[in-house]
Amino acid sequence: MNITDLSRVIEQVGKDRGIKKEIIIEALEQAVLSAAQKRFGVGAQLESHYNPESGEIELFQFKTVVENEDEIADPDMDIDLEAARQLDPEVNIGDDLGIKLDTPTFGRIDAQTAKQVIFQKVRDAERDIIFNEFIGRKGELISGIARRAERGNVVIDLGKTDALLPRSEIIPGETYKTGDRVQAYLSDVVMTPRGPQLYLTRTAPQFLMKLFEQEVPEVRDQIVEIRVAAREPGARAKIAVVSKDRDIDPVGACVGMKGVRVQAVIHELRGERIDI
């Protein structure tokens, strides 16, 4: 496995995938180490380090310095003093000596192992990036494209990842075709063994409140506050509002001129009647 001039590759992968260089370098180091461990055995003391000046992953095998060849119990673990001092004149008996190995000698099997480690590390990093991005958006409105149905649930494509709109969180009577745009409330973000799982809802009272926040500037600016909301999804809903400014009518602000604001919310809720 010839690993040379990696700087450009590291920069490119980091840019394309949005992953920090340190994570990619760690993956490459782990890949070389894993491949070498298979060749030299689990007992071998190995370390790998990225050298930014040479653009190489350098692999070192550590051996314990013993007095002479007769004391070498395992050639992969021990080295006699005379041989050790040819590499490092200042080494003494009992020291651990790091010997640089030739990384380009790894074969096809080792290269495949390296690729698997790298890809897994990149996938893990991408999962962490997605989780950290969306955990910060929990409680927000999310828009995406309906991709497929799974046992009544709808899988929503958000671009970077998919989210699940469970059947129980769909407004009664709603149906979605592939390609339909869907707006929903991000209710939860959970890290699972398969990566982050995002859960959406269109039936929760919070979805109704966020829609009003989207349509009513006074709610968005916290001049008008929605104190409480209740829903029978697809049938009717109620919200209680209060104004922090005596000159602003909270009900009128939510209704809007000629009812345009509340009608936008009703349209999104498929005709659900709203009392304010």
Q: Any key phrases for this structure?
A:
276 residues, five-stranded mixed barrel
Describe this entry's structure for a reader.
By secondary structure, this protein is an alpha+beta fold. It is built from eight helices and twelve strands. It has helices spanning 7-17, 21-40, 81-87, 108-135, 205-215, 217-220, 250-255, 260-268, and strands at residues 45-51, 56-66, 78-80, 96-101, 141-150, 153-157, 162-165, 181-192, 195-201, 224-232, 236-243, 273-275. The strands form three sheets. Strands 5-6-7-9-8 form a five-stranded mixed β-barrel. β1 (45-51) and β2 form a beta hairpin. The longest helix is centred in the middle third of the chain and has 28 residues, at 108-135. The protein is elongated. 25% of the residues are buried.
Structural class: alpha+beta
Count, helices:
8
Shape: elongated
Taking strands numbered 1, 2, ... along the chain, how are they ordered across the largest sheet? 5-6-7-9-8
Q: Helix amount, in percent?
A: 25-40%
End-to-end gap: 69 Å
Report the sheet with the most strands, covering strand number, pairing sense and barrel closure. Answer: 5 strands, mixed, barrel
Helix and strand pattern: HHEEEHEHEEEEEHHEEHHE
> What is the tally of beta strands?
12
Using the CA coordinates, give the radius of gyration: 30 Å
Percent of residues in beta strands? 25-35%
Output mean pLDDT.
Answer: 85
Poorly predicted segments: none
